[in-house]
Design a protein that fits this description.
The complex is a heterodimer of chains A (about 375) and B (about 375). Chain A is α/β, with parallel strands linked by helices and about 375 residues long. Chain A has 3 domains: about 130 residues, Translation factors (Elongation Factor Tu (Ef-tu), domain 3), CATH 2.40.30; about 120 residues, 3-Layer(aba) Sandwich (Rossmann fold), CATH 3.40.50.80; about 80 residues, Beta-grasp domain (Ubiquitin-like (UB roll)). Chain A contains 10 helices and 16 strands. Chain A has a 6-stranded antiparallel sheet with strand order 4-3-6-1-2-5. In chain A, strands 9-8-7-10-11 form a 5-stranded parallel sheet, sandwiched between helices. A 5-stranded mixed sheet of chain A has the order 13-12-16-14-15, covered by helices on one side. The radius of gyration of chain A is 22 Å and the shape is globular. Chain B has one domain. Chain B starts with 17 loop residues before the first helix and ends with a helix. In chain B, about 40% of the residues are buried. The chains are: A alpha/beta (about 375), B mainly alpha (about 375).
Chain lengths: ~375, ~375
């Protein structure tokens, strides 16, 4: 049985015509049978808050599951174009273990094509395509599932839809380590924007060691050092998990550090916000040559190779547009590029680069676009 | 400007030159305005791309796959000649659809915007003997950039046929018609070795050594195709292997003959012009469109004739908009014709048979040397 499984896995690692035809027939029967993509059925849609919905998905049995805090990429076809975005998983691992279900929670962003489509165009029984779960934002000591031992005391700080990966972790604590001492400080603009408020208030009554402290920035203003201190006086003894818009995370990190929190005690995740806020520019102008097509375009050092290629009239392949999936990789012949996410130069001897996160520093030549 | 035209002694049948283009027909500003209008038409089509186009190409892929699967099954399991013949027909249809409406058009990048890795131009590999990378180079780049420019666009006669007096007559051209027949029958391999530039290798202009990587890719592709159609599938049929080999060979032949016919109708009809290097020098966008129109020809017919031609029945539109999904040409064509009419530009179209007859006439006519009397009259 195991050798059969191994053979099957090996077979499907190839992307030949035989695989394409078999997958075609499987998909004709049911798109969820696909072996080349992971189709997940939308099992239920829940209105969570203003412009925010939770999608409970049923993945196929070969989907390997997730750890609380991880995210998946979700691919949808919108007006004929396949688009992919990352969303944190917002449900408990128990739901998956017992019912083979998990959820993502998506807030509609102004001008966000995928989030808008998910909130308005997707219905139950639709099929979306997902990736394996990834990310390391989870709690390291979550392994103690069966022991019922409390985890070390924890502080969660979230803003807006940054609550989603944290919700999964909190559900996990409730199910497996309910005696854990933990606090959630949650910022939203107003009450209508508060995601999971019912669930969180319910948990507060259920778990004596859980303090839930919601803040509304519309009336109270943004996070301050003093507020953080009064919400969690023993902050230096806590493991901290932080997720929200970049500016929010930057100030929180600064305040936590001022309050004496060590760098290693604080973990953060930026997928809860628009990834565009976390970018570096090269600020060096130059010309980018795409030698295969013969197209060239002026670069001001503020756009990625993928964006420049598209502006020059090309339609390169891409996936996540966020440096994760490598669908967009291209071959650099010449020139320097920096990683938009880290601001670091990509080593010169690395010719295969991800066009979606590579910003040209001066002149650059790409051979296969 | 005429002095720059090379080979003046061969110009007796040469109906069109850049100097003619600017003096006799359209002014430069008219050509610019014409180019702008065509550009606008393209822009509108691209802005409108969406679900309709994605659904269309996927429905063609679905039809192609069903016809291939059922065709191969019938060839394998048929117990009588009729069901076997139906199988061969279905497999032929599948190969034609895959090569024309899917492969050729996908490799032009017509569906790259869909972001579907299976319909992506740079990685698509089609079901025939021509390696896709080689095709992307010789067809997408050379043929589409230098359309009908003698010496640059090697699709014009494929280096072996004489199709205008631009090619000096040699005794071997007496067999023009036979060469055409053989090329058509083995068309998939003909385009497969196109990049070899056999005539340049023969004349010593290019060394065979330079062509080694290309030949390697070609033989790799041929082995793969041969393995599939003539070894694996026949072996699966066991004792009935022979009828599978015969069926697959016939389907490949049918595809070869049909694709060659469609392509010859695209550029070698009576009214298709040829050009020279001088026409390409400093060419504006408007002039480029103009050359594409004069060098190409359409044919009319029913919906399935267009689909089975990969919409290359709209060769003029294809040459103006090679990266616009080909099923859109049908609705763009009347607009192109209106613009052509406005600028007094000839638009070469006609029924399939009447266009094809002029192709055969051309192949026959240029098997003979140029007639001096005609040249003087012209």
């Amino acid at each position: 049985m195991r050798t059969l499984q191994a053979f099957s896995n090996k077979f499907w690692q190839h992307n030949g015509q035989l695989q394409n035809y078999i997958d075609f027939i499987l998909c004709e029967i049911d798109p969820l049978f696909s072996r080349q993509r992971i189709g997940a059925e939308v099992f239920q849609i829940i209105n969570e808050a203003e412009n925010t919905k939770t999608f409970i998905l049923r993945p196929p049995s070969r989907w390997e599951g997730f750890k609380p805090g991880q995210y998946i990429s979700v691919e949808l076809e919108i007006n004929g174009v396949r688009m992919r975005r990352n969303y944190s998983i917002s449900s408990s691992p128990k739901l998956f273990r017992e019912k083979q279900l998990f959820s993502i929670t998506v807030k509609e962003i102004d001008g966000g094509i995928v989030s808008t489509y998910l909130n308005n165009g997707v219905q139950t029984k639709d099929v979306v395509y997902i990736s394996a779960a990834s990310g390391s934002f989870g709690m390291d000591d979550l392994q103690s599932i069966d022991t019922n031992v409390p985890l070390s005391s924890t502080l969660f700080v979230a803003a807006g839809s940054g609550i989603t990966p944290i919700m999964s972790m909190i559900e996990h604590i409730k199910e497996y380590n309910p005696d854990t001492v933990f606090t959630l400080v949650y910022y939203t603009t107003n009450k209508e924007q508060q995601i999971f408020s019912k669930r969180l208030n319910g948990l507060k009554d259920l778990l004596p060691n859980f303090s839930f402290i919601p803040h509304l920035t519309e009336s109270e203003g943004y996070i301050t050092k003093e507020q953080l201190k009064s919400d969690c006086p023993d902050i230096t003894t806590r493991n901290i998990y932080l997720c929200g818009p970049q500016a929010f995370m930057d100030s929180t990190k600064e305040y936590a550090s001022d309050l004496g929190v060590s760098d290693t005690a604080l973990k953060f995740e930026s997928f809860g916000s628009s990834p565009n806020t976390l970018t570096y520019n090269s600020e060096k102008e130059g010309v980018v040559n795409f030698t295969q097509s013969g197209n060239s375009i002026q670069s001001k050092g503020d756009k990625t190779l993928l964006e420049l290629a598209e502006l020059s009239g090309l339609n390169p392949k891409y996936g996540c547009r966020n440096g994760i999936c490598f669908e967009c990789k291209c071959s650099r012949i010449d020139g320097q590029v920096l990683n938009r996410l880290t601001g670091e130069l990509i080593p010169e001897d690395q010719s295969q680069i991800q066009s979606c996160i590579s910003v040209p520093v001066g002149n650059v030549s790409i051979s296969d676009l | 400007m005429n002095s720059k035209v090379k080979q003046p002694d061969l110009l007796n049948e040469y109906k069109f030159s850049k100097s003619e283009l600017s003096s006799n027909s359209l002014t430069k500003s008219e050509l610019d305005a014409f180019g702008d209008e065509i550009d606008q038409l393209k822009k509108e089509a691209i802005a409108d791309l969406g679900q309709r186009d994605a659904d269309y190409i996927r429905s063609i892929v679905r039809k192609q796959r069903y016809s291939e699967i059922s065709g191969r099954a019938l060839i394998h399991f048929s117990l009588d000649p009729i069901s076997w013949a139906v199988g061969v027909g279905l497999l032929s249809v599948s190969k034609i659809l895959e090569n024309m409406e899917i492969g050729h058009n996908v490799m032009h990048g017509q569906y790259d915007w869909m972001n579907d890795p299976k319909l992506y131009s740079q990685t698509y590999e089609w079901d025939n003997n021509c390696d896709s990378d080689s095709w992307r180079k010789t067809h997408n780049y050379e043929h589409h950039t230098y359309t009908n420019i003698i010496g640059q666009d090697r699709d014009y006669g494929y280096g072996i046929l004489r199709l205008s007096d631009d090619t000096p007559w040699k005794p071997r051209h007496l067999f023009n018609f036979l060469t055409y027949g053989v090329l058509s029958a083995f068309f998939q391999s003909g385009v497969g070795v196109h990049e070899l530039e056999i005539e340049k290798v023969a004349s010593g202009e290019v060394s065979l050594k330079e062509k080694k990587p290309m030949l390697k890719a070609f033989f790799k592709k041929v082995s793969k195709q041969t393995l599939k159609d003539y070894i694996i599938f026949p072996l699966l049929a066991g004792p009935m292997a022979l009828k599978v080999i015969a069926g697959n060979a016939l389907a490949n032949l049918a595809r070869n003959l049909w694709t060659s016919t469609v392509i010859f109708c695209g550029h070698f009809t009576e009214n298709s012009h040829t050009f020279h290097d001088v026409d390409y020098e400093n060419e504006t966008r408007g002039e480029w469109y103009y050359r594409q129109i004069l060098g190409s020809g359409n044919f009319t017919g029913g919906k399935w004739l267009h689909i089975m031609s990969g919409n290359l029945s709209y060769q003029i539109e294809h040459h103006m908009f090679p990266d616009v999904p080909a099923h859109r040409y049908e609705e763009m064509s009347p607009k192109v014709q209106d613009i052509c009419k406005k600028y007094g530009i000839a638009y070469n179209t006609g029924g399939f048979w009447s266009q094809y007859k002029t192709v055969l006439a051309r192949v026959a006519r240029y098997s003979l040397p140029p007639r001096k009397a005609n040249a003087q009259l012209a």
